[in-house]
Write a sequence for this structure.
């Protein structure tokens, strides 16, 4: 009399996560919103404004996916995650996509059961330090106390860099970005280390941003991008091609303003992109006008970059590596055809 | 017997009830065995299923990661550690850090808790009110908030290392922690330690002798001057005869931080302080409850024997109160140990922070690491409660129960 109950319970456990993993698009549509993992507040990448609206480069990826699926960029449920908890949230199915300035590494790609879908931002690790300490180079940091957020690639990079240069250091790792910043501000550490884009973003949060300086050394490669779970190739394609669509739109000169005009263009590549020719959108499991929806909602990659982290934002980071491949950078998307 | 004459009708309900209470014969045993088997099967099913799901999603599993190189730094470690050590070593580092902060926290929480608990019952109006206020204030604020308060308050009040407060250029206090001279052993150390050992042994013998005399002749004997003389005199003679037992390595500011010396990090101080003051508030209430549970007549009896108020408390009331205090005190010790996992908020590298935090996010092996971590906290807790149970039985025995 007890056995069937256990069998059902065990079967539910056994089948549960598998069923959820296979049909993310269907699940998202049924739920009526995309569940998107973001940071707990990193200006430029993902941060809520004073009205609770999330903005940022990583947020725009979530909104672009929602636009492609629902034709409504507001149908996103943002789940703020610490660096430590982000992968578990994705593995367990709590979120559909993780768009949280996450570095693409081999071990993460292979052992966590996730797939990186592309690179939204080519970053590198650096050091933020008080101007009053008169340090001009990371090579002068021997013996320094360093604050870092735990669960990042930054912890190992510091170890590699300092040991490689025969320098000593004290690494103090905190659970969240805010705790790390507070400890740095209180003087517990001489140096705050993170990806350089984050250092600029965090410097804005400090009481006197002008008293702190980012050292010139870049000690690692940090390609940041969105991730999805293993086991659902259709969803993997949708997330991957959402970013590619934004980059291709910039390359072809499609902007938030001119997207309606461009959609009427007779140029073959634009006709393919906007669904006037072929059924590329349907092949992805989306609609014909998927690219138009994305660009209308968040603009092309360059517009999103400028608005959130680039010249049009408080951070004022130059495009650098993140410029398009044909303008001196390395942002490059496979063609939509 | 009389019941042999007439067999009771078979009824399943009562029989099952008796079976699950463990008082029925073979039938009950079989039911219990079946239940245990079902539990084991369910556990196995969960494990097998989790493992299959991990494999299907190609998430790494197994315990092989423990022998991989960790490659990240840990700010404080009582055992030797470098980045080239393994994750297993990281686990040990975290475990030792957890045990140390829990042990220090338990000692101070007990001391403060007993002082406040007894203080709350004091006849002195001010002492009783201050103790009461302490309990109400501290136990009603979230612990995480208190940990952050102590950390940021301690850090905020302290100067940078270059402006550190120094005591005679030997001890330095800054927002990097407390740095004290580190003793380095010399030749005289062995003799010095022997001298201390002899002095301790002599003091103990003297203590036993004084106690026996008190019980035989009913006269207290003042021994503390002799004990003090022994404890200071013997080591002093050893030092004069064989030279200093150790010299001190004086910390010096070099670059960003102090080099040399022993350092107590602010993370440790803040965590130990928050854990002990917070838990002390609960222990104080346990102590108060325990003392109030001792009948008033005991106090009056003690005083009518001519004992002072303090001696009555110490010799008569508290030993009886311990019986009531011990079980909830064990709970508080367990709580303190488990609460130490909040250390990650202030960057103290405890087990939860370096193993279930950094190691987990670097290897991604959540199931294994969380299982190990839970197992370790369980072991620590069980060990604590076994030790307290042992002590509790001794207390009960000494009270003749």
């Amino acid at each position: 009399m007890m056995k069937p109950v256990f069998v059902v319970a065990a079967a539910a456990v056994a089948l549960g996560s598998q069923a959820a993993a296979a049909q993310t698009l269907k699940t998202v549509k049924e739920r009526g919103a995309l569940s998107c993992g973001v940071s707990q507040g990193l200006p430029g990448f993902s941060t809520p404004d004073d009205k609770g609206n999330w903005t940022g480069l990583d947020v725009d990826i979530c909104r672009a996916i929602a636009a492609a699926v629902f034709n409504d960029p507001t149908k996103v449920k943002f789940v703020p995650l610490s660096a430590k908890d982000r992968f578990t949230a994705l593995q367990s199915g709590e979120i559909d996509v993780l768009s949280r300035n996450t570095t693409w590494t081999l071990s993460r790609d292979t052992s966590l059961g996730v797939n990186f879908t592309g690179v939204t931002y080519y970053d590198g690790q650096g050091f933020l330090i008080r101007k009053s300490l008169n340090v001009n180079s990371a090579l002068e940091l021997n013996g320094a106390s360093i604050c870092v957020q735990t669960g990042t690639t930054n912890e190992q990079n510091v170890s590699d860099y300092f040991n490689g240069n025969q320098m000593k250091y004290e690494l103090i790792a905190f659970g969240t970005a805010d705790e790390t910043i507070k400890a740095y501000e209180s003087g517990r550490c001489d140096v705050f280390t993170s990806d350089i884009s984050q250092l600029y973003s965090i410097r804005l949060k400090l009481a006197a941003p002008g008293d702190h300086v980012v050292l010139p050394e870049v000690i690692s490669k940090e390609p940041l991008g969105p991730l999805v779970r293993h086991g659902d190739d259709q969803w993997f394609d949708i997330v991957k091609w959402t970013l590619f669509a934004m980059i291709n739109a910039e390359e072809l000169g499609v902007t938030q303003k001119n997207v309606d005009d461009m959609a009427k263009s007779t140029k073959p590549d634009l006709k393919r992109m906007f669904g006037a020719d072929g059924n590329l959108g349907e092949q992805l499991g989306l609609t014909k006008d998927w690219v138009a929806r994305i660009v209308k909602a968040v603009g092309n990659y360059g517009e999103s970059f400028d608005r959130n982290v680039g010249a049009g934002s408080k951070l004022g980071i130059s495009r650098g590596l993140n410029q398009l491949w044909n303008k001196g950078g390395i942002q490059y998307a496979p063609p939509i055809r | 017997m009389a019941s042999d004459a007439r067999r009771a009708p078979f009824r399943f309900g009562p029989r099952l009830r008796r079976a699950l209470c463990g008082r029925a014969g073979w039938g009950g045993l079989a039911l219990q065995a079946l239940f245990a088997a079902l539990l084991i099967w369910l556990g196995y099913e969960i494990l097998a299923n989790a493992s299959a799901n991990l494999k299907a999603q190609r998430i790494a599993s197994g315990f092989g990661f423990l022998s991989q190189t960790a490659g990240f730094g840990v700010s404080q470690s009582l055992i030797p550690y470098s980045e080239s050590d393994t994750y297993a070593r990281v686990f040990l580092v975290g475990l030792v850090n957890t045990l140390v902060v829990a042990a220090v926290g338990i000692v101070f929480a007990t001391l403060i808790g007993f002082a406040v608990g007894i203080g709350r019952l004091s006849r002195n109006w001010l002492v009783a009110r201050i103790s009461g206020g302490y309990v109400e204030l501290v136990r009603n604020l979230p612990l995480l908030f208190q940990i952050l308060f102590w950390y940021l308050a301690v850090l905020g009040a302290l100067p940078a290392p270059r402006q550190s407060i120094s005591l005679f250029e030997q001890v330095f206090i800054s927002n990097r922690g407390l740095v004290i001279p580190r003793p380095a052993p010399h030749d005289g150390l062995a003799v010095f330690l022997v001298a201390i050992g002899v002095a301790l042994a002599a003091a103990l013998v003297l203590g036993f002798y004084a106690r026996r005399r008190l019980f035989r002749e009913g006269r207290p004997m003042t021994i503390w001057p002799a004990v003090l003389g022994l404890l200071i005199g013997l080591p002093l003679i050893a030092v004069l005869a064989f030279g200093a037992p150790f010299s001190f390595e004086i910390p010096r500011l070099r670059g960003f931080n102090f080099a040399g010396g022993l350092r107590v990090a602010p993370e440790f101080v803040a965590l130990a302080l928050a854990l002990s003051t917070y838990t002390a508030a609960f222990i104080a209430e346990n102590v108060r409850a325990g003392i109030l549970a001792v009948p008033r007549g005991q106090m009056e009896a003690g005083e009518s024997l001519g004992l002072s108020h303090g001696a009555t408390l110490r010799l008569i009331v508290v030993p009886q109160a311990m019986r009531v205090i011990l079980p909830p005190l064990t709970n508080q010790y367990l709580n303190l140990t488990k609460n130490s996992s909040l250390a990650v908020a202030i960057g103290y590298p405890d087990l939860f922070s370096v193993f279930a935090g950094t190691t987990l996010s670097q290897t991604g092996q959540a199931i294994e690491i969380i299982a190990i971590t839970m197992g370790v906290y369980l072991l620590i807790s069980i060990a604590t409660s076994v030790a307290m149970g042992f002590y509790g039985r001794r207390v009960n025995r000494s009270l003749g129960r």
